[in-house]
Structure formats: C-alpha cells, structure tokens
Amino acid sequence: MRALTIALLLTAAGHAMAAKPAPAPPRIEQRAPTEEERNSFDIYFHQKMVAESHGARPVMPLFAPAFDIERQRGKPWQVIARVDSAPRHSAVDLCRQIRSSFIFDAKAPKDSRWSETAQEPTWHVWLAQPNTICSAVQHTVLMDQAVRPEDVVALLRQHAELLSRARLLFAGNSRCIRQRALPFTLRAIAPAAPAAGAPVMFSLVFESDRDTVARVAVRRHRGEYAAWNVDCD
Questions:
Q1: CA-CA distance, 77 to 70, in Å (whole number)?
Q2: Which of 23, 75, 122, 144 has the highest CB neighbour count under 10 A?
Q3: Whole-model pTM?
Q4: Domain map of the chain by residue range?
Q5: Which has the closest alpha carbon to 155: 220, 96, 215?
Q6: Is 100 or 11 the better-scoring residue by pLDDT?
Q7: Per residue in 125-159, pLDDT tens?
Q8: Domain 149-232, what fold?
C-alpha cells in the first residue's frame, strides 16, 4: 500500500511538472505620437472643420488632441487621436464636452490616413457652477446618452453617498470584499436592467487607485436613489 501511495504521488508530481504554465498575456507597448503623426492629424482636422463650417469661420477646439498609441509586441501600432469639444451647458446644472475619436492608417495614401473611428462620440459631463459659464475641469464622468440629464445631475451630486452605502454590500460579494476600503473615483453613469421591482436602474462605474473597477447598481424609486447591488473586477 505504501509503495502504491508513493507511486501515485510521484505520478501526480510528474504530471504537475509536465503541465505547461498558462501563457502570459501579450505585453502591451505604448509610445508618444511622432511629429509626422501630430502634423498629419492637425492638417486633417483643420480641413475637416473647414469643410463642416460651410464657408463660415471654423471653430477650432480649445484643447490639443490626445493620442492613445499602443500595440501588442510584434504587431502594428494602433494610433488613435481624441478631440474634446468646447465645454457647454448640456442641461440645467450640467456641463458637457463631446469627445470624438479618429484612427490613423499608416498604409493609406498620405492625404487619407486619418478617419473617424466606428465608435460614436462620447459625452463627458460634470456639475455646473451657479451663474458661471462651463469651463474645462480635470475630472469628467462618461455619460450614457440614454440616461436623462436630471438623473445624471442627481447621481453626480449623490454618488459619494451612494458609494458609501454600497460599501456595506461589498462584504457580501467575494469579488468586492477586498476592495471595500479602497478609494474610488466615479468614471461613468449608464442605464441598467430593471430589477427589484424598480423600472429604472442605473450603473455607477467607479475606478479605484489600484486600477480595479466597482459597478454599483442604483435603484430609483419615487425620485429617490438607493445603492442596490455591487459587482467588481
């Protein structure tokens, strides 16, 4: 019996040694845009604004484009340029910028290397200050256009309290319990599927200082908002 047990252990150990470790995820490389990429985008975007102004003086963006450039090792670079519109009031108490994205094709003819991406322009919002025009802020929140502006305003005002109450729910979720005490920043507001007898639900997406994500499901009932459930990555 002892010999059989040892044989089984050795066999298991042999299988463990023979098993190949899981492959590491592909390494993502990033870089800054080249001068050629910057210049070609400036020319493309200026021509786009002139064409869309229909003879009027084009209104150029207040901010320089932001570039996201990355690739998996050994593959071509993906070059994305993002441009934010000027801040403006979207609704009472709500400021908005619209972010448009453009992609670069290095193999295309020189005068047609930039084009709009398939992604629809995104809305980025923040609370307006009383009797003040909207101006750019450091932190904005991605807003799904399916959410009513009045709900967005209420959720922006109450998100810290909703997160505080949701932390009690973290303890009941094995994927969230270790994140219960982390500091979070609100990143996005989106609609969620109806639940708990409430026809209107929202998802507040928070990001921690450790790059983890917590989604707080919020229930709206008779004009009040309550944290209802949580999920974490």
A1: 6
A2: 122
A3: 0.80
A4: 28-143, 149-232
A5: 220
A6: 100
A7: 999 998 899 998 999 999 999 999 999 999 999 99
A8: Nuclear Transport Factor 2; Chain: A, (3.10.450)
